[in-house]
Amino acid sequence: MSTFIKDFIQRETISRRNFLFASAAGLTTAAVPGVFGRGAAMADSGGWALAWSYRDRASAYWNAIVSGGEAYVESLGLSRDDMTNLINEGSSEKSLADIKAFLAKNSGKGAIACDPNDSPNARPVVEAVREAGGYISTIWNKTDDLHPWDIGDNYVAHISWSGEAPSEQAARILFDKMGGEGGVVHLGGIPANIPAIERLNGLKNALKDYPNIELLDAQPADWDTTKAAELMASYLTRYGDKIKGVHCANDNMAYGVIEALKAEGITGMPITAFDGNPEAVDLVMKGELLATVFTNPHWGGGIALALAHQAAIGAFKPSEEPKEHREFYGPSILVTPADAEAFKKSYLDSTPKYDWNDRWGLSAGGIVYR
């Protein structure tokens, strides 16, 4: 196993283990006195308990999301520990159960940001929040027939990032690097996840203009580095040197692809990814990744919680806002070798400061359904 991938997996494992140890020791927000109750810190949040519900904090992406939520909480004059972490570990059932428990412990006065884990889970989650009297914003996953305005003010907003357009853009860069011909493979996320669907569609859109590029295979690796390494190894066994490029639906899977290629002594194969994590940007700068797409998770995590909380305290009334303020895309940036260094200085070496009252300033427009 290469040193890079080994170090990456080790960091993920240590990060996860340390968080669990902290949980067991009562150091996380779920165990901090006053967060579930009515502690003095609640005064600065207008009497509302704040929470982020998400998969895990082991990956750089989710760590950035949650750090955005913490930045919003700190902007209120509170400690980041005043935000409860509801970690669902990839379980939709746990996601719903944790949110219900959080609301029950706070008598319904909860302002929540949430990735429902998969699209079907969004409806029971937002309905539970409405019934309890809380407020919620969701990101990434919901069904196309579920809209905040159909639920009411308690379902404040849904934020997604257009996966198709930037994924298509990355695919075109990949195909050009391949010289416009040869076989490409795709490693996707969890099949029911909206971003996984959109990013595969983006690849397919680009293929229409490249008749000499063949999509050899497209399979899910569930956003996971280890699964991606195993899947890429199987692709190499099945297709061999027919593979001239790799299209990944996120950075973590690209790390696994790099490991599998290095195990076979293959270097220089063009690979594109998605998320713009620090490790991925470093790989772009080193020439090991052709491109990645940054979705500004820090801003997304902060604005999702800000919208839920500001609606809860009456700073704005969701039902008085246009639909494009209740379902909207966040910003995306394609990172290539030409601009990776400048991007790193602007977004990774130091985190930009955001005005959380500028609710839709970075919106990339209302969500479009097909």
Helix share bin: 40-55%
Strand content: 15-25%
In total, how many beta strands?
12
Order of helices and strands: HEHEHEHEHEHEHEHEHEHEHEEH
Low-pLDDT parts are: 1-41
Mean pLDDT: 89
Give the end-to-end Cα distance, rounded to a whole number of Å.
43 Å
Going across the major beta sheet, what is the strand order?
2-1-3-4-5-11
Discrete helix count: 12
Please state the structural category: alpha/beta
Outline the structure in words.
By secondary structure, the protein is of the alpha/beta class. 42% of the residues lie in helices and 16% in strands. A 6-stranded parallel sheet has the order 2-1-3-4-5-11, with helices on both faces. Strand 6, helix 7 and strand 7 form a beta-alpha-beta unit. Helix 3 runs parallel beside helix 4, helix 8 packs across helix 9 and helix 10 runs antiparallel to helix 12.
State the main characteristics.
single chain, 370 residues, six-stranded parallel beta sheet, four-stranded parallel beta sheet, 12 helices, disordered N terminus
List the SSEs and their pairings:
Layout (H helix, E strand, L loop, with lengths): L2 H22 L24 E6 L5 H16 L7 E5 L4 H14 L4 E5 L7 H11 L2 E5 L8 H4 L3 E6 L3 H14 L4 E7 L5 H14 L5 E8 L4 H15 L3 E6 L2 H13 L7 E2 L5 H9 L5 E3 L2 H16 L14 E3 L3 E3 L4 H9 L22
Parallel strand pairs: 1-2, 1-3, 3-4, 4-5, 5-11, 6-7, 6-8, 8-9
Antiparallel strand pairs: 10-12
Helix pairs in contact: 2-11, 3-4, 6-7, 8-9, 10-12
